[in-house]
Amino acid sequence: MNPPVEGETRTFERTFTVADVKQFAELSGDAQPRHTDADEDGRVMVQGLLTATMPTKIGGDNEVLARTMEIEFIRPVYTGEHITCRSTYETVAERDDRYEFTSAVDCENEGGETVLRATIEGLIWKDA
Question: Gene3D superfamilies of this UniProt entry (predicted)?
Answer without folding.
Answer: Hotdog Thioesterase
